[in-house]
Known about the structure:
By secondary structure, the protein is mainly β. The protein is built from no helices and 8 strands.
Amino acid sequence: xxxxxxxxxxxxxxxxxxxxxxxxxxxxxxxxxxxxxxxxxxxxxxxxxxxxxxxxxxxxxxxxxxxxxxxxxxxxxxxxxxxxxxxxxxxxxxxxx
Length: 97
């Protein structure tokens, strides 16, 4: 399935909710402990201002982002769970140093 993201929306692949300890114990987060981090899969072209000018998006494909718990809509594509959120729901980009 192909998806074209519109406006100032961002398709995010949430960070896995399954964690494994050093001893091999698998911990599964419950739904109320949703991860707030994910990888940007694709972005829309940006929204238009009142004059019809396109406002540039601040994130790009591959960025690791932090977002609010109540961000966007959960969708399933090819048996994988994604979030479709507005760019202004993104709190920060994670930068590795």
